[in-house]
Structure formats: structure tokens, C-alpha cells
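pasting input
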Amino acid sequence: MIAVWALVALAFVALGILAYIAIRSRTRPVDLEKAVLAFRSLDIDAFRNLVDSAEEDFLRDNLPPRKFREIKRQRAWAALIYAREAGRAATALARIGQAAQRSSDPKIAASGIQVAENAFRLRVQTIRTGLYLLTEILLPDLQSQSLPHLVEQYNRAAETLFRLGRFPSRRDPVARSKSA
Amino acid sequence: MLGSGWQRVLLFFLWVTPHALLAVVAVITWKRRLHRELPCFFAFVVYEIGEFLLLFGLRFVHSVSGEVYAYIFSATLLVSIALRLGVIDEVSKNLFREYDFLKVSARRLLQCVAALLLGIGTLLAVYAPGNNSAKWHAGVFVVNRGAAMVQCGLLLSLLLLSRFMGLSWRRPVFGITLGLGILSSVDLATSALRAEFTSPAMKEFLNLLITGSSFVCVLIWIGYLLVPERKPAFPALVPHDEVEIWNRELQHLLKH
């Protein structure tokens, strides 16, 4: 009997999710500027600092174990927020890529496919990073591996975006507050 | 519970109307040439119409006993389940077809979800077979319950995955997924209840629920098939060289 009511409850939850997705899908045009701002809003230096293994070794050597675990959890949590924002930026880029893909200009359409494809990869990468950081939060005594590729290459992408003439080069205030 | 006249009329209306509207869905699908792109969905729609005509006809043939009708109903239900799974597969292929990365990773993820749901469905069939497991048609509803769970889970995974990854749907495909999702969710609830509660009143109430959800599902399909695709706003905003810069930088970003 419990199984029956559990399935009925599951069916209702599924209906709720379907209704939510249907309603949200009607009001989501591609917002290029917002996507670019989201991409640029990540302070890559702060993120690099948070996931730097040398920095972690220094903290491990100079702090009592309990304090070290507390600080490490806080750092991993902050880095997780960055990974989440990077994931959101990737989602926005994917949408832009797909919109470009429907262009009548074959060059734009072909580039759009590649942008979308790479954005999907980036999204998956941020999920993997998020899982890794979650493990660090749960098991702070675990020895960290650094995430240099993600950091350095993201930095290059952000710099390129600054060079795009269309968008103002000032740093987003949200990013400043995040990096503080 | 639903023995009175107006309830029977409502049940009859909800049984006939969705199938009549399915003919409209078939015509729109054909006219928009979607039958080439979504052949399994088209086959499913045509099959559902044919199945309805057969069952509707049998209802008025006096020589057909209730037992024979139930056999035929169960056989057509099993084919319908297979076709629905085919439609889900078709929708996922359509969604990921342009992206090599998703073709592999997302489809692999969906296969894992399907295997997991199938396992849960089998366990449920073994450990919670319902009240009347001795009767074969109750067994069919248990199979339908498991299938509805797999379908519902797959469709939800597909929708949530696309939302999570920022995947854009083409309107007809989204409409098909949404409609089928609603139908599968209601099917899951009703078949779970049907396997447990077998009174005639409950049966009629559940019939009303499932026919009502079919009606909603077909209306969603018609709506999404008729509405034209959104025009892309992107090319006017960003010239293609900027897209290429983005692309190049993202490739750098992802290179290990």
C-alpha cells in the first residue's frame, strides 16, 4: 500500500515539475549582454587563490587541525559558488550558441554549433569541479589536487571578452563583492 | 461513484474527443513534414487512432465478451507502451543530434537512468504486485505501472537535463515531450491505484482521470505543433567573428 501512495506522490511531483518547466520555457529569451556579464563576473584570481594547493599546504602547516578544517571548508564553499556561477555562464553561452545556430548565415550557424558544444563541455566540467569541491567540504582532511587548467583557461576566456569592443571593460560590481 | 448519466456522458466525451483530435495531430504532423523527422511519433498517433477505432467498434459488438475485450485491450496497451518508449528515444535523439558531445554523454546518462528505473519497476512488480495479482489483467496494469514509471522518469530526466545544460528545444519536440510527460505521470498514478483498488467505482473514476489527461495531452500537442518557431535574435546582435572568438577561447578553456 505504501508503494502505491509513494508512486501517486511521485506522479504529482512529476506533474509539478512539468508545469514549472512549461511555464518557464515560455519566458526565456536569449539575453546576450546578461550572459557576457555572467561570464565576466567571475574573479578568476580569487578562484585561483581558493583552489591553490600550495596555499592549502601553507594553511595546513601553520594552523591547528581543527582551525584548518574550518578554513578549508569555507574556502571550498566559496570556490563552489564560483563553479556554480561558471556553470550558469556556460548555460547562457549554450543558449547563445544555439540561437546563433538557427541563423540564415551558414558561418554564424556553424560557429554557433561549436560555441554551444563547448559550452556544454564547460557545463559538465563545472559539475565535476562542484562534486570535487563538495568532497572537500565533507572530507577536509583529504589532500587536494589543484585545478590549474580550469583557472588559467578561464582567465584567458575572460580577457578575450574584455577585448570585445561591444561591452564596457569595467569590472562588474557583483564580481568585486564576490571576490572580497 | 460515477454511475450517474452526466458522468457517463463525460467519460464517453473524454474517450472519443482526444482520439478525434489525434487525427488533427496526424494531419498537422504530415502537413509540416514532421513525420519524416519524427516517424515513431507519427506511428504512435496513427496507432492510437487505429486502436481506438478497434476498441470502440468492439464495444458495440455483442458477441465480444468482456474477457475477450480485456485481452484485446491489454495487447493494444502493450504495443502502445513500446511505441511510447520509441517516441522518447526519438525525442532524445532529436534533441542531441547536432552535438557530438551530448550524443555520447547525455544518451549514456539517459541509458543509466532507464536501467535504474527499470530495476525499480521490476522490484516494485515483485514486491508490490497489487491486490489482485492472481488475475492476469491486474498483472498488465502492474506492467503498465512499471512502464509509466520508466517513461515518466526518462521524460523528466530529459527535460531537467536540457534545462540544466541550457539546451533549447524545438517547439514541436518540446510539446510532444511535455504532453507525453503529463500522460505518463497520470498513467503512473492511475495504474498504481488500479493495481491496488479494483472496485467498479474506482475503475470508472480512474478511467475518467486517464481520458482527461489524454485530452489535455492532445491539446498540448496541437498547440505546440501549430505555433511557429521563435525567430533567432542572435545574429542581429553579434557578428560571426565574435562567435568565433568565443568559440576559440572556450576551446582553450576546456583543453587539458
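fyi Chain B touches chain A through 60 residues (CB under 8 Å).
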